[in-house]
Amino acid sequence: MNKRKKILIPLILVFMIVPVYLYAAKGVLSDDAQMCLGCHSNKDMTKQLENKEILSLFINGDRFADSIHNATGCGGCHTDISMENHPQVQKVKSKKEYSANNSKTCAMCHMEDQLKQKPMHGYLVTKAKSISCSECHGAHYIKSIKEWKGGLNEPQYCLACHKYDLSMPLSSGELLHLSVNESAMKASVHGKLSCGACHMEFSKTDHPMRTFKNKKEYTATAMKACTICHTDAQLRKNPAHSALMAKASCVECHGSHAIKGISAQKATAPETQYCLSCHKSKLSMTMKNGESLSIYVDEAGLKKSAHRSLQCANCHIGFTKSAHPVRSFKSTRDYSLFSISNVCKKCHANASTQYEGSIHYSLLNSGNPKAPACADCHGGAHSVASVKNNKSIGLTSCNKCHGDMNSSYEVSIHGKAWGKGNQTAPICSSCHNAHNIESTKMTTKIKDGCLKCHKDTEKVHNKWLSNPPITLPSFARTHFDVASCAACHSPMAGRVIYLSLYDRKTGKPLPEEDLLKALETDSNGLMTKIDTNADGSMDAKEVWDLFAQLYKKDVTTTFMGKMDVSKATEAHMISGKAEATKDCEKCHHPQAEFFKDVFIVLKKADGKPTVLNAKKEVLNSIYTILPARKFYALGSTNIKLFDILFIVALIGGIAVPIGHITLRIITSPLRSMRKMGKGGKK
Amino acid sequence: MKKIYLHPLPIRIWHWVNALGFIILILTGAQIRFGNVIHLFSFETAVDIHSWTGFILIANYCIWLFYYLVTGNIKIYIPPLHHPIEFAKKAVTQAKFYGLGIMVGDQNPHHSTFDHKFNPMQQVSYLMIMAALIPVQIITGLFLWDPNLFGPIVNLIGGIQIADMIHVLLFIFFSAFIIVHFYLATLGHTPMAHIIAMFTGYEEEHEEHGHGREEEHGHSQGH
Hints:
The structure holds 2 protein chains of 2 kinds. Chain A is α+β, with helices and mostly antiparallel strands. Among the domains of chain A are: about 1-110 and about 140-145, no CATH class; about 440-640, no CATH class. Chain A is built from 39 helices and 11 strands. In chain A, strands 7, 8, 9, 10 and 11 form a 5-stranded mixed β-sheet that branches. In chain A, strands 1-2 form a two-stranded antiparallel ribbon. The radius of gyration of chain A is 46 Å and the shape is elongated. Chain B is mainly α. Chain B has one domain (about 1-220): Fumarate Reductase Cytochrome B subunit (Up-down Bundle), CATH 1.20.950.20. Helices cover about 65% and strands about 5% of the residues of chain B. Chain B contains 9 helices and 3 strands; from the N terminus they run E-H-H-H-H-H-H-H-E-H-H-E. The longest helix of chain B is centred in the N-terminal third of the chain and has 29 residues, at about 45-70. Chain B is globular and about 55 Å long. The chains are: A alpha+beta, B mainly alpha. The interface between A and B is large, with 50 and 45 residues.
């Protein structure tokens, strides 16, 4: 019994006295704490940190006295401070560092096992070390978790941690940011909602650990919350929005915690920003043929582009903050054609018109999916670089398709100069033009590109192109009209003659459609129709027959001749002028080396040339005088029939005197007799 | 024998410059055209000589034209179109002479004087040559000399190949003509009579042809 009393009495004392003591101790500060507060109760007491932040050293004594750590006193946590050495100069870089250092003392009482009891808290303590204890829990006014939770509403509780720059790594390697801007959230249309209204699995008492493969999976999960309030019918009311829902999640356009009301967003956001709210996401649009067209706009690229000062609606006619028509196109090509005519041309009328006459447009128009439209060369409509500042666009964009030309360009005198950083050195667009690019076999315009830089070309050529008594600049132009610059200035190149079929009425290459229509055939039957002897090569009679057939159908044509290099790559291997061909007889000779290979060139519907073999005789036949009446080279386009006529005329010229003399010799006895008769009479 | 003054000095100079020029043009033209078989000059030299000579002959033609227009003697090239039948008969007579009469010892039906230098056949052919063929040859030659300079006009006639065709056909004609012309020049009363006359200006004529001519034309001189 005594033994039992001995145990009970202390227990009763403990259960009665300790609570009373504790109650009495609550709100009572220890002596050392009161001593510290002697100074730290001063509200103006601050310390400037190395990063210039101001750290308040003020402690509210009453609130500290109410905290769960009041009995611990100041020294319980500030173990490095004693009255003997305080105050002492302590260098602190930032509030963040100060908080992290002081939070280390928490682990003195709060063991790791305790901190890991809640998995999410364990993650924050052990892995997400970006925040320290005091950042979430505070320092001097900490209350028990239960009391703390009871005193905060849900958003406040959540923001205790999520106001900091927290992030969560995903399996894909992406980083999912978990921070929430408190003020933006409060100002949002959802400002009055509690966090759990959307983050339904989360509450002040429950914080599950989740893992996601990637952001897409996360947003797909998160947007389920949106549909709780926003019904499908409401969301699909606007057709554009309805279409968009299949491509993008809610948060990609509307954001998450700082969502504004649609009307407020429209009223306050600049047009570009309003559009970008959706189009900054990697959206795409499906064409009728199944092709995908990216409608993503790189905001950073847009800000640097030549179009940065434009509003979206300047180009996208019909689209405003209040209107978003739903459009559909057969294909990306169809969209490109639409854009050239309806968007780019609005401001760039000249360039667009020139482009519409180019081989690129013909290819695009004929359905070639690789044919370039404006954006393909200019770096995308929303990241268009200013050509003035970026001349290289005339080289790099061409190389996307014509990369095989680049190697020959690089070894040329022009390519070497460009490679050395000479910005005035010619690149593709300098000679081929930027927009009105034509098939090189069908044009002589490329020389204009050369003449842009080589301004004294006529004078230079007339130093050796002799045409006495006075060699005029036009004499040099006579040669430039029919010979490409590369034909003489690419010494390693092979040279050929191209006879391109032109429509005399338009002055342009005769389109294949017109040719086929006049010949009453199709592409497959063309060769049968014009190469009548089916030897795979056009002879003079066949050229005449083609010309005559077209003439009968009121299609007046002419074959424009041009001497050029045999391969496109050779055209770019321009050398120095010392190596250029200056031998006249390479062209002006009945057996001229450069006139041995002749080709007939027809323009296909897509702008590309059809090159047909031709016999050399087409340059020397009576049949081709009319069809190729504008092409002539002294000595090498001689009409053979005239040569024969010359021989006949010479023979005839000599035969007349010989014949006459012969007759006179034969008849001389007659004359002698008559003379004698006359003499006799005398 | 009488000497009739036929060729004034400017015309004699014009003629021989023209003759030499024609030969040079034919030779250099042949070199340009038949570079594979004729090797008299290089292509460049042939073109240079051809161009220089061409311009000299253009100037020469202008001298000829100027002289005949100023003196009014251009009429010697103009057939008497107001007497076409008579002219045609004379032409036939002249042709008969060259084809037959000359063989049997007939006298030349035409008797040249200063104002009546050409027989009907010469008159027609020289008029055609001087008024049409040479100007056309000059113009087409200029087109070929610098096709770009004359581009718009060249296009009017159909193109440079057409200009070349005309130039070459005339070149062929003149090549044959000059041979025949030279032969005909030997058909005077002596083989050298016409040729010497083109140097001296005076043509010798038999007495039987000279009766009354000097009175009629006033330019013949009796010797």
